[in-house]
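Model: You mentioned two targets. I'll fold them one after the other.
Researcher: Yes, keep them separate.
Model: Target one:
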Amino acid sequence: MISVHHRLKPGYNTLIKQTFPIIVVISILTGVYFLNNLGNNEIFENHCYLESKSCTLKLVDSEVTLNFEQYPIVIEEVIKFSVEHNAHFVLQKGWVEGTNMFMGKTNLAIGKSVTLNNAINHQIELFLGACSEPRMRWKLVLDLTDFRTGQEHQVSVFFQTNYN
């Protein structure tokens, strides 16, 4: 029988024993930080994960805020929400699509828009149908244009629906 023994350099075992707990603690703290902060209504660059009635996204030098009338989002009912953004942006269009099952794109019904204090507030309605998947994940997309520069921007809101 052939036996292979690997000997580590002197002190290497001690170094591993000393640094391993530090690496574990740092990993755990990093995980806890992301779990605690991912669902908060922090301002995200161009997307957010809806975990409450509102979500705020960063758009160039301003913000876009979506406020839903109810949370959690339900299927087979009219979903009403508002989108508020700086007045130098124009909401071109919006839609929602499934991310775990492709069901096509459903356009948003953009209704009444009000401008107040250099901000535009759009009232929007959406209807999500049921499918065979009890837990659906969705992506709501808004296309906006900065009329000062002509630059187009896209922001997304991810959410899920459940039915029994």
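Model: Target two:
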Amino acid sequence: MLTDDPKGKLYVRDSEAVTDDHTQTEFVVGYGAISMVKRSETMANKGLVGLELFDLIHEIVFENGAYDWQQVVNDVLPKRCKGNTRIPIFYFVNKVGLIDCKGKLFDGAELSGNVATKFNIQEKEFQSQGSDKKRARSIPEINIGVNELYQCGDFGLFLRMLPYMGFNLIKQDLDVLLKILKKHIDEALATKNTSSNFCKVVCIYDYVKNSNRF
């Protein structure tokens, strides 16, 4: 049984809440622990047909699924990509070995129309062209690194400004970005004001890490 009650011998806590006082803890799961365990159970129960956007987002962050990846690419992604701009695809397409070392599809490989469109996405397509673009010019941390940008303002600002950071710079800080995503995933996806931008940042993480283009 999983619980966040410290009286139990087996319990789940966020890693930032772990202190030396919990000497009787036999096992502790860190960042995004409850989310990861519960989401994995839910995904296993409903199967591939029922996979939704947030399930795909969780898989990108935690990489703990065991699915027929070919079926995910052929059936799940085309369904979820219709009318949704915040779908990560590169991790899944890479799972079935369709991306070559230069970030292109191997000869003879095909993706459905909506998935193919997202496969050909460019960096600038992650950026909005309104006030955020103007705001980004006034934040020097965008040209320094992921942690510096994260530390310079609130989390909402971080999510809105990350798309304007050079993706090669993001590549250097992927481990830092992953820790940030794991730390905030539960609250961000549950909050209307941040869920969309959080999914966009996960898509950027997926693009930089799994597209073979960086």
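Researcher: Noted. Anything on target two?
Model: Residues 31-210 form one domain.
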